[in-house]
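Allow me, if you will, to draw on your knowledge of protein folds for a short while. The matter concerns a single protein, recorded as an amino acid sequence and a row of backbone structure tokens. Kindly check, if you would, that the fold set down in the tokens agrees with what the sequence suggests. You will find the record immediately after this paragraph.
***
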Amino acid sequence: MRFEHLGAEPRIHETAVIAPTAVISGDVTIGPDCQVLHGAVITSEGGPITLGASVIVMENALIRASATNPVHIGDNTLVGPMASVSGATIGDEVFLATGTRVFNGAHIDARCEVRINAVVHLRTHLAEATVVPIGWVAVGDPVRILPPERHDEIWDAQKELDFPGYVFGLDRDTPDLMVQLTERYGSSLARHVHDTRLD
């Protein structure tokens, strides 16, 4: 399913194969020989998304851009089932395994591997050919790659990255943080009410 969103329509190369249950919305460019499988969602929320050549987006993966964080995915990259990429730049020949999460402002250079259920956090940079082990967390720039049981160290690095400030423009110490966050984000997402289905 293709949707016009905020006046922008997806541009899909004639050799790309898009499953009928995939959703492609807004300012999205899909390059030659890409495969987008069932249940995948590629949605531009105000910023562009570009998939290079021969990118594979597997079942139920989510790729989302924002006005401040576009998405670029390089050639011959695989986005695994149930993986999520939000506002990140991904290089060529990258492997994002099942259930991986890549957050806003992250940069993953060529030939990296982010293995099953691993996380590349907000504004984190993975240099070329870096591997994030199964279930581990990559955080910061310079990057620290930590197992999940080292939560205190992960949290120390995350605090400096300021997720609510960077993504939503809100101070973490705001007493009604979640009220303001959901009102602001909900208002932005409500713009989909004017989307037009193209197929």
About this structure: The chain has one domain: 2-197. Residues 2-197 form a domain with the UDP N-Acetylglucosamine Acyltransferase; domain 1 fold (CATH 2.160.10.10).
